[in-house]
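Sorry, explain these tokens?

***
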Amino acid sequence: MNPEVSSSAKILIPVGDLVSRELITRALHALSSFRDPLIVLLHVVEIPSRTAALDPEVHRHQIQKAEERLNELARWLTSQGLKVKVRVAVARSAADGIIEETERDGYLIVFLMKRKMVSRWQRLFQRSVSERVVRHANCLVLTAPIGKTSSRSENRANTKIP
């Protein structure tokens, strides 16, 4: 292997309705051992109906709105000195869109921010996005609950010592 040629690690960060800059910062800090990583921000526009077409033109407004949100986050990451790319996909589910992206473009890691913890009863009837991605993605998947970091610091601040 030629020492002058270093392949950049590609890190996929799917972004839904909620995003935590704190979690992204922590994840990127943990992944800082990768030299010059390429961060790909992905939003999946979900079209769950099996009868609706997956034609992106039909959902142009949703795609443009998602691109605007991702571009704002991309500007922030770029200001931190990172290489960032933005992608918006249309799929039947967020998990399908994320898995398809990992298959298409050779990622090293997917960093998922979980919105909520699912109860035992809910697990019987529905699979979480992160569970499906962990099972089917062809790369390493890291997950972190969005509310976890903020609630810990708030709980410490609000805890009374007897």
Notes: The helical segments are 21-30, 60-79, 94-105, 120-125, 129-136, 146-158. Residues 1-6, 148-162 have pLDDT under 50 and may be disordered. The beta strands are 10-14, 38-46, 83-91, 109-114, 140-145. The CA atoms of residues 36 and 160 lie 44 Å apart.
